[in-house]
Amino acid sequence: MKENTQTEEPIKQRSSFSGKLGFVLAAAGASVGLGNIWRFPYLAAKYGGGIFLLVYLILVLTFGYAMIMAETALGRITRKAPVGAYTHYGKSGFFYFGGWLNAIIPIMIVSYYAVIGGWVIKYMYEYLFGHGHLLASDDYFTEFITGSSVEFWFLIFALITMVVIYMGVQNGIERVSKFMMPILVVLAVIVSIYSMTRKGAMAGVAYFLIPNPANFSWMTVVSAMQQMFYSLSIAMGILITFGSYMKDDVSIEQATTNVEIFDTGIAVLAGLMIIPAVFAFSGGDPDALQAGPSLMFITIPKVFDSMGFGTPAGIMFFVLVFFAALTSAIALTESAVSTFEDEFSWSRQKATIVTGVIVILLGTPSAIGYGVWANVKILGMQFLDFFDFITNSLMMPVAAVATCYLVTRVISLEAISVEVEKDGMPFKRKKIFNFMISYICPLFLTVILISSLASVFGFISI
Fold first, then answer.
1. What one-character DSSP code corresponds to residue 423?
2. How many C-alpha atoms does 244 have within 13 Å on its Cβ side?
3. Separation of alpha carbons 193 and 70, rounded Å
4. Within a domain: 343
5. Domains in the chain, number
6. 108 to 93, 115, 417, 456: CA distances (angstroms)
7. What is the CATH number of the domain that holds 200?
8. How far apart are CA 94 and CA 102, in angstroms?
């Protein structure tokens, strides 16, 4: 199906980042999200600590690198969001399927992501007003998400996201990323130092940073592979969209390396923030680390409440988490808005408003799904859990495989190489990219798809 007809299309004036820093911080903001903070430390603690971290780093430098390069180059070649990027090379079913799959994913994700973002704002608000001890009570989180105020906090987070998107690429996304990402890093360093200086915390630091081959298992690789895939914002349409905003004189490879460093650095800092603190709190038991919301909204408030300076630590932590959640939500929303602009020739303002309405309509069931709609379930799952399952476990791996096929069988590796070298710099990791995107990435994506489904249906535990 080599429909490489590549019809010439008039390229209208498109928004762009001001330079490499704008792209890097926006892409890093997209990748540095809730998954880095609540999922990475849990998986690292569960699957071997330092050996998990080592496997994760290897995967980022190979698998992650290849996928980031492919999606970013695809965006810059075509100057289009996902649908336009795919259909630039053909008009058959595959191109529409792959394009719209990559375009629908971010809309579905941001609808429930904004709900969790609302939870973060609520906790940040309570810490700012000195209610950290209240947050550490056993039933607080359950009472909150089943109560009537959860929709309000969801709408607040969604509104903040839409305002940034409405402002545009340089004035909104880039400006917010340049402001928030440095602060996020500083806060992460401060909270990490706080965590590592608690009594008994160094055992957690050693467990997390020092690889022990005895802790290695096949599930170490599978879980690290899954975490890296979701963490780097692959197959969400984000990198294609941001690539379309990248100027020709910016090095795609250097920018990708910077994103790798930024994302991995924050993941490591997240581990140093959480694992030593939980070790100190639990007396060195890695099983005390729980996955997902329970870690962030139940365990962490208890940990901070048990230590000195818990309220300042809680404030810094949840401000950090809010920045991470917001930058990711902005990236997801921008991908959807860009698709509407390209495919329907809408203004940014109209596309943003329509996207905002869709997010609220799709997100409301997730917001009230633990409360008044608690008895309404899909395949036995609450709305938020179902949206997470359908996007992460099914749609994203399939979308990534489609991109691998498009790049290797339709566009060609040589065309990607020409695009990468457009800035005049050599393609340093070309052999790694060609081998990974042609053979290993599709294999790994198949493993991710199968393991995700196996985990959801209870055959394996991740």
1. G
2. 27
3. 37
4. yes
5. 1
6. 22, 12, 32, 19
7. 1.10.4160.10
8. 12
